[in-house]
Amino acid sequence: MQCYINRAAAGHAKTSVMESTVVSTSTLAPDEFDRNVPRICGVCGDKATGFHFNAMTCEGCKGFFRRSMKRKAAFTCPFNGSCTITKDNRRHCQACRLKRCVDIGMMKEFILTDEEVQRKKDLIQRRKDEEAQREAEKEARRPRLSDEQSQVIATLVEAHHKTYDDSYSDFCRFRPPVREGPVTRSASRAASLHSLSDASSDSFSHSPESVDTKMNFNNLLMMYHEQGNSPDSSEEEGSSFSMLPHLADLVSYSIQKVIGFAKMIPGFRELTAEDQIALLKSSAIEVIMLRSNQSFNLEDMSWSCGGPDFKYQISDVTKAGHTLELLEPLVKFQVGLKKLNLQEEEHVLLMAICLLSPDRPGVQDHARIEALQDSLSETLQAYIQLRHPGGQLLYAKMIQKLADLRSLNEEHSKQYRSLSFQPEHSMQLTPLVLEVFGSEVS
Ligand SMILES: [Zn+2]
Ligand SMILES: [Zn+2]
């Protein structure tokens, strides 16, 4: 028992002075021994193992002293009471051995009672348990990705790679973009935009990048506001929506890709066809806005999808019938999202979370979709905590982006509706676009 206590106490690197004194019965902490001094038992001369009950002794004499004290044994020397105790004869005369023990300073007060031993043992065990508990709690607080979560992320990343071609090689199959029309203003506008962004980055080269970006953005918007850019005014100038066929094909193509991505989100295909369609119809434009961020360029506020033909400026989108009421917040959204510097894993999770929003119109199995979305949100949060240094606020910012998308969606629907009301424009759309965004013309 005593041995156990001594070992346990010595094993505790940070034992208190009280504990090391009482439990190991040493006046010196083990570390304080001079390792060069030979350790000899003060009783019998055998090899000592340390201070026991206040004296340097061997294990044998330690045990002998404790047993003797506990038994309250009274020994009598069979000789003349002055035996010399050695390692070999120490068993021969208990009386003189015990006398020697007391002579070298061993004290029965240093012996723990069974009760004390038990208490000490309990205390040490309790500390061990508490330590283990603290470790377990620390471990539990440490966010981790379950195998299932890692698998979901891997699936989504793969789904995105399969449905987002960053060479944009399919874009040349769309009806071609037409930027040169009766109105040549757009070209000069684009040109002045470039010089403007160059100028501002020169004159503000000492400022942080974000300031430049903001400057460019505000200048850009001001320019469009000044020049008036509503579809009506363009039409008055004789411009039809020259970019509409190309952008309609681009949107139609993107919808197909979003559908492909959605089908690969774990759990999506198990939903009813009605719910799948309801989710896709209401979120498609939001997911398109999200995924387009990959091509969005902060330097010139354009979506760059390969060559110059497929570099889309705000002016290009106005030539497809959209106004600044959509495009201003859309570009702001793209800038904000870009600046979050999302990792691909976060980007794909955000798209999946957006797609699996239970509060979309027409959704039936609300609870099931909510459960799927919750699990994706948890995965995103765990991922950020684990893999995104300094990402404490990132999750909240990402969720805010989903809220921004709702109002962008609303504005898009409004503008789409007024566009699709006009047969000459709706006839430029594709059957898929009409099906997903709605066909207002009967
Ligand atoms: Zn001894
Ligand atoms: Zn004796």
TrEMBL record:
GO cellular component terms given for this protein: cytoplasm; nucleus
Biological process, per Gene Ontology: cell differentiation; heart jogging; heart looping; negative regulation of transcription by RNA polymerase II; positive regulation of transcription by RNA polymerase II
Cross-referenced InterPro entries: DBD_VDR, NHR-like_dom_sf, Nucl_hrmn_rcpt_lig-bd, Nuclear_hormone_rcpt_NR1, Nuclear_hrmn_rcpt, VitD_rcpt, Znf_hrmn_rcpt, Znf_NHR/GATA
Biased composition annotated in UniProt, kind: Basic and acidic residues: 123-147
Cross-referenced Pfam families: Hormone_recep, zf-C4
Domain NR LBD: 148-438
UniProt KW Transcription regulation keyword: yes
Keywords: Cytoplasm, DNA-binding, Metal-binding, Nucleus, Receptor, Transcription, Transcription regulation, Zinc, Zinc-finger
Residues of the Nuclear receptor domain: 38-113
Gene Ontology MF terms in the entry: nuclear receptor activity; vitamin D response element binding; zinc ion binding
Ranges for region Disordered: 123-149
Localization (cell): Cytoplasm; Nucleus
Membrane-crossing segments per the record: none
Top-level taxon in the UniProt lineage: Eukaryota
Keyword flag Transcription: yes
PROSITE patterns, per the entry: NR_LBD, NUCLEAR_REC_DBD_1, NUCLEAR_REC_DBD_2
Family per record: Belongs to the nuclear hormone receptor family.
Assembly notes: Homodimer in the absence of bound vitamin D3. Heterodimer with RXRA after vitamin D3 binding. Interacts with ncoa1 and possibly other coactivators, leading to a strong increase of transcription of target genes.
Its job: Nuclear receptor for calcitriol, the active form of vitamin D3 which mediates the action of this vitamin on cells. Enters the nucleus upon vitamin D3 binding where it forms heterodimers with the retinoid X receptor/RXR. The VDR-RXR heterodimers bind to specific response elements on DNA and activate the transcription of vitamin D3-responsive target genes. Recruited to promoters via its interaction with BAZ1B/WSTF which mediates the interaction with acetylated histones, an essential step for VDR-promoter association. Plays a central role in calcium homeostasis.
Record protein name field: Vitamin D3 receptor B
Organism (species): Perca flavescens
